[in-house]
Amino acid sequence: MARLTPMLRQYLEVKERYPDAIVFFRMGDFYEMFFEDAEIAARVLEIALTSRDKGAEEKVPMCGVPVVSASTYLARLVQAGYKVAICEQVEDPRTAKGLVRREVVRVVTPGLYVEDEGLESKSHNYIASLVIERDQAGLAVVDLSTGHFRVTEVPLEGALGELFRLEPRELLLPEGLRESSLTGKILQSLPGVFLSFDDLENLSRGRAEVLIKEHYQVATLAAFGLDGLGPGVRAAGGLLRYLSETQKGHLPHLKPPLFYRLSQFMLIDETTKRNLELLKSLSGERRGSLISVLDRTRTPMGGRLLKHWILYPLLDRAAIEERLSAVELLLADGYLRERLSGGLAEVYDLERLNARVAMKTATPRDLLALKSSLLRIPHLKEALTGKGGVLGRLAEEMAPLPELVDLIARAIREEAPASLKDGGVIKEGFNPELDEYLRLRQDAAGFLAEIERRERARTGIPNLKLGFNKVFGYFIEVTKSQLSKVPEDYIRKQTLVSAERFITPELKTFEEKVLSAEEKSKALEQKIFEEIRQKAAAFGPKIQQTAQAVAVLDVLVSLAEVAEERDYCRPEILDEPIIEIKEGRHPVVEAFLPSGAFVPNDLRLDHEDHLLLIITGPNMAGKSTVLRQTALIVLLAQMGSFVPAQKARIGLVDRIFTRVGASDALSRGQSTFMVEMTECAHILHQASSRSLVILDEIGRGTATYDGLSIAWAVAEYLLEKDGRGVKTLFATHYHELTEMARLSEKVKNFNIAVKEWNDQVIFLHRLQPGPANRSYGIQVAALAGVPQPVIRRAKEILRRLEAGEFEILTGMARKGSRKRLRGRQLDLFSPDNLLKQRLQEIDIDQLTPIEALNILAELKRLAKED
Ligand SMILES: Nc1ncnc2c1ncn2[C@@H]1O[C@H](COP(=O)(O)OP(=O)(O)OP(=O)(O)O)[C@@H](O)[C@H]1O
Prior knowledge:
damaged DNA binding, MutS, DNA mismatch repair protein, Chain A, domain 3, P-loop_NTPase, six-stranded mixed sheet, MutS, DNA mismatch repair protein, domain I, 866 residues, Nucleotidyltransferase, domain 5, single chain, 6 domains, binds adenosine-5'-triphosphate, ATP-binding
């Protein structure tokens, strides 16, 4: 240490306090990084790595980024998963005695990033914290870029699901969980989440309460609905402490924590969110997702709220009806909708602008954006006056804040530059002192012209010019051919190819005056701007309230537009557990087909005679589509949207469960069948009589008869669960399941119609009562391009199976007729020696019917491979 320069010593002291962060060390107009930090940053940011003298002969690796463009570099480091500590000069270098004092003013991680460059405008950037107490988990989430703060308590097994629903960018966990299996599971569910660890386990309930009360200056937690909570309060307090430490206590825009219970909303778990392709398609893109069809929002806060509505459908009938009525009104009044959408399109991200104002990072252009957004508010309010219901309430909640608009309009120049650094931000006439400096600078132009004119006359050099550059300041330029006329008092400063530049004492004195005026005016502009920003910050809560109202309005207008364009209807919301859909459509599939090409379908579910619908039909007929569209229509209805149907009556559903086809869990080291059964177990445990269960092809991942037996037992269990059963749609290729309809009147068979033509199938996509009579698997295989010899052979096997050989075989197996069975099987599948040998080993007399069936299934499989 002793050999280091004082500056590097200061740097190392800072670094010692933030060992796991890259330190951005402010030096003038740059943030510099040293040692290993410099090497990492140079690599990640692709900037030059240089070095600096350590004071002795050794060199220290170093790199730097300009302060003006720092947020871009910051975004890249943070996105690459690094933590950055921003260390500023906290005193004026011009007046500091000795080394300038520097302090870390903010720590930035993926979850603490607030600059626009690295954030998706229509997504929240959440940081969450998790605290576990026995079988309960407390969860708190904050979006620092908007100030949203939410808290919940969930049973431990639901914590992961809720985390997946929120998808935080960063998760704060108790130190003790660092190496735990739970952390491993979290990383599997949320790949790319940035994990931070904190001493949350030793944060007592009492201490956490004090932290919250102190921050919000309240006497009790009752106002936030947090009283009576345990781990929820600790998670919220812990998160607040972490935010306060990293932001150095600077969190004025954080909204009061909003407590919610999972039971207030329809529960959408990880599987359902993925399977129903709510925010992303199965291939991971926005295209093909529900939100891609629904999102017509014009403001970033509207976009974020729409996501929230999709993930948190309501269970309160009155609240749903309110939203639906607003959508209906907007749908009916095209003129109103147009006025509103025009206004909304001109509102910027009020939430993030407000956050930047509060965090003192707002630029002059941010304030202009705030002003022009607020200027739209009176128009929106006016358009909504007298509308009643939600719309009327929104109008009341919007605050146009004319004092703030007026202040910004008087103070900030419309063409203000992006940064404050070079001045030119504050309008003339706003501050007399600033005007004085400005006049001096303007006068300077006249004064310089006067000097030029006078010097030309004095020296007789007609093309003598006055100029300015950053290195030499003001100068007089004389071309080489005129040099002989230059007077004695000119002092030569610079030689160019064809001219020489001079200064005079008079010019130097003048220059000092002008430059000091410039410097003073910049400092004054900075001060004035900060004062205005400070004043704007005082309007924070009103701006947030307005932003929230704008967001709701934006989503409602968006839903009305989609309803109009895609011809959706208003669903009837019921308390009784019925789902009745007439001419329902899949909102996403239909959007990809030509208009009118989608075949609508009717469907009814209830607890009397339509509790379990078994849906059979060939591959590609549209079984999955019917299943998913039913779930999506229910979800849309409960989020307050119109639905793609001619008529829909929806009894409130508390949860939608889905078990659909292959999942991407293979990459997480689980087998397809294991995933299928885990999801299935979850459904069987959790589903209630108010849930909707969608099962697509269950039991397919194992041996045929194991699978069939499981599928059958699962269906039976759901039929009886809790005495009332669970509304279930079950698509299957196990034709045997259709037998269930004979055993219970609550079960109904449906199939999806196809037409046969020239040994080809034509898909009609129409749902009709009764079981499917054929599977057409081979025709679909042919469509898919399976080679002709295989298709011919498959048809041959199928023909013989259908001719009854299958039943004969099983019958024989039951009777234990070893010899005949062997003969038949050999004949049927033209087996090789290996197969013959296997059959010799089987003691058919001891076989149970199921075992016999399994053997046959295996033979079939071998024959197919053959
Ligand atoms: N009602 C419909 N109207 C028009 N096209 C439809 C309809 N239903 C499905 N389709 C089309 O058929 C395709 C296959 O549908 P889907 O995946 O639902 O079939 P499936 O019966 O579940 O098939 P598999 O058994 O192979 O999974 C869809 O991608 C869609 O293009």
